[in-house]
Amino acid sequence: MKKVSYLRAASVFLFSVALLFGCSSGNSGTGGTTGGTSAPQAANPGETPAKQKEQLVVAVNENFITMDPQNTGDALSSGVQTSMFEGLLIYDKDLKLIPGLSTEYSVNEDATEYTFKLRQNVKFHDGTPFNAQAVKINFDRMSNQENNLRAYRNYKYIKSTDVVDEYTVKVTLNQPFSAMINKFTTGIISPQALEKYGKDIAKNPVGTGPYKFVEWVQGDHLTVELNQDHWDKGAAKVQKIIYKPVPENGSRVAMLKTGEADVIYPLPEQQVETLNGADGVKVERTPSTITRYVSINMLKKPFDDPRVRQAINYAVDKDAFIKVVKAGYGAKLESVMSPTIAHYAKQGVYEYNIEKAKELLKEAGYENGFTTDIWGNTNSDTMKGMQFIQQQLQKVGITVEVKSMEEATLSDEIYGIKSPEEAKMNMWYVSWSSADPDNAMRSLFSSENFPPAGANTAFYKNDLVDKSIKEATQSSDQTKQKELYGVVQEHVFKEAPWIFLAVDEILYGKRSNVEGVYITPSGGIYVREAEFK
Amino acid sequence: MEAVKEVSHSSQVSMEKKSSRMSEFWIKWKKQKTAFWAGFFILFLLFIAIFGPLIAPYDPYEPDYDAILQTPSSKHWAGTDEYGRDILSRIIVGTGISLSVSFTSVLVGAVIGTILGLCSGYYGGWMDRLIMRSSDVMFAFPDLLLAIAIVAILGPGLANVVVAVAVFSIPSFARLIRGNTLAAKEAVFVEAARSMGAKSSRIIFRHIFPETVSSMIVFFSLRIGTSILAASSLSFLGLGAKPESPDWGAMLSMGRDYLATSPHVVMIPGLAIFLSVLAFNLVGDGLRDILDPKTKN
Q1: What mean pLDDT value characterizes chain B?
Q2: How many A/B residue pairs have CB atoms within 8 Å?
Q3: In the predicted model, is pLDDT for residue A331 greater than 60?
Q4: Of A134, A310, A331, B249, most Cβ neighbours within 10 A?
């Protein structure tokens, strides 16, 4: 009988280990049915990346949502798209604008007319030639409100796109829009594919980029292969790139260590020390444009009172946040955007002060605190951050319930509403990545961008801010822009539609034989020069 | 007078019978060395579960950002977690959560399962077919998958975990009790009761049910182990306890990012789960050796 007992003991132990840790490689999300559990291990046993070195595996932390570059809201999807799509201009790895599908451009004095000379002898992946007509079809698609694309936010300023000749296109704006030049980085899709796939274009990307689409198995991987006919032939050398969503931090690190993945992003902060200098692994750090904050729904009680929002800001210890949640990597957020973005104006910090927070809550009539909830995705970093906020607010009597949701559900709950009053969200733990001040401010604080139209999830509305943003977008004078954006930052910071937390530092890991792959400051995955050494 | 004597005599007999049964059980139980000690461990767990909040050295929810991820020391016997909370205190308070969740869920499963099993075995016919075929359908799903599906429908939370684990316990109990009922139904004393005109309900609960108790106890204790594991797994997946609660599964889940750097954060709750599941299984094994008529020598 004893024998049986030990056998049972051993089997219980093995079972519990298998059950509890086995799951850790899968999707830890609440979805349950998302089917990601076996995803990370699904690397074909036949693949031996270490030997052949023909394919590069990039493991990232979330699922990709769409492959339509003109309707993308998340940094990760657009990060993947950069391998397949190019705009008239493209961002290089340091977010500088460089020529893409256009070779040169000119702009009139009040910045309402852009004329692009297009690159010649460029073909889309399906063989369709790239020309002025293709550009027109794409721009018309984005500037048409009926198409309901995310790019409409920026392309609505386009009055008309005209074909001048085969390789020249003229874009006329209906008002000056200073940030328009950054928006010409939006990927151009093959007109033939647009016609062929219709709404399914999001699953069948066809662009001009250095890599062309092979397959996308939802929740498992997305594969692209080298485009032999690319105009910038020879820059990228890796034959095949496989992007894999691996939400579990531990699995991603393990994949990098074993060589199953060649690049992982993000690299979990708490593992930097142990990984740095590990065999064949390189840890890379980049200052980022990613701001981390909690968006507060200002339409809801008690958050409609600015004193409550300020109190919450005073109640959160930002130093402790960076130390506990970010393992020391990152900086305090001292404005509404990262210091690396143009026209940044430092505002300072809501210094950690519980007494002041309590006082403000008392003034606002919430001496005994209140109960609310915070939303976020199922990422383990997000979970950690949300619990941190919960602990901090508990100290001033605010009871917060942590609710984590699968990314797509979350996005639907927040952006899928019909009117602002319908929003159920109280607080949302989130981050925003932008490359230009327009995207960092107009998208988030202008009242025309209330969900579902835009990303002003705090429902922040201030007439002066609206006016300043509008003027700034119409001005081409840099000093005036700086001044106007300064006003915006000052007011928003004072009225605290967010809990201002931190500016991330981008951490990613790669095998030491990987060259030319970078994570850009905005979280994009730059593979245009990918090669194995 | 005669009758009164008779009655008191018979009750004395039954008392004696009971106490002799108990002492017989105790003698046999002491011989089961592993199960005996595992039983003590379970008593210890129960003690902690009841008095946990009083004996925990620290507040299990109180963070200390100046003492994050400390390895075990004289100040924090089991170290601290990623928020600087004392892990030992969390384990102690978590014992109550884990045990009450698994106990309630198995109890609910056992009660419903037993009733279904008794009816199924006793009445037979369409009722038997209905209950057993539905059980088969439930058996077709792996336990944990079924529980995940139930929680997905009901929404996350410990109360729903209890429901989910209870639901997947029902068919196992129903099938076990049905088997015992079928055997007991044919026994002479049941036939005697029936021929004396006893009602079905009386036969089921007074005559057949006691016959099934011993195997039910065995299965119950084995099932608690499974249920602790299932509840922890659900919490690990974020479907059970809230992430901040000191539930063992939730602790494992939140600590897994630190597996490489601070393994104690996951090892300790893992060990707690391992030891308690093991203890319940060993006790179940021991009980089976004593109570199961098939293994009687």
Answers
A1: 88
A2: 113
A3: yes
A4: B249
DSSP tag of A115: E
Q: Cβ contacts (< 8 Å) between B148 and chain A: which residues?
A: 32
Please write the tens of the pLDDT for every residue from A254-309.
999 999 999 999 999 888 888 887 788 999 999 999 999 999 999 998 999 999 99
Place of tokens 């011989």: B31
Residues 6+ apart with CB under 8 A from B191: none
Nearest one of A206, A199, A119 to A167, comparing CA atoms: A119
CA A243 to chain centroid: 16
pLDDT at B191: 87
Q: How far apart, in whole angstroms, are the C-alpha atoms of residue A469 and residue B87? A: 50
Distance CA B141, CA B161 (A): 17
Q: Is the pLDDT of residue A104 over 90?
A: yes
Beta pairing class for A371-376 and A399-404 = parallel
Q: Which residues does chain B have within 8 Å of residue A323's beta carbon, measured at their own beta carbons? A: 65, 68
> What is the DSSP track for A256-312?
HHHTS-SEEESPPGGGHHHHTT-TTEEEEEEEEEEEEEEEE-TTSTTTTSHHHHHHH
Note whether B253 and B13 are within 8 A (CB): no
Contacts of A34 in chain B (CB under 8 A): none
Distance CA B97, CA B162 (A): 11
User: What is each CA distance from A301 to A357, A359, A429, A491, in whole angstroms?
Assistant: 17, 18, 18, 21
pLDDT at A22: 40
Overall residue count recorded for chain B in this entry: 297
Would an 8 Å CB–CB cutoff place B82 in contact with chain A? yes
| B83, B148, B233 ranked by CB distance to A19: nearest | B233
Residue A142: left if φ>0, alpha if ψ -120 to 50, beta else—which one?
A: alpha
Confidence of residue A37 (pLDDT cuts 50, 70, 90): very low
3-state secondary structure A14-33: HHHHHHHHHHHHCCCCCCCC
- Closest by CA to B208, choosing from B177, B165, B236, B254, is B177
If phi over 0 gives left and psi between -120 and 50 gives alpha, with beta otherwise, what is residue B124? left
CB contact under 8 A, A30 and B252: no
- Beta pairing partners, A404: A376
Q: What are the structural domains, with CATH classification, of chain B?
A: 32-52+85-295 (1.10.3720.10)
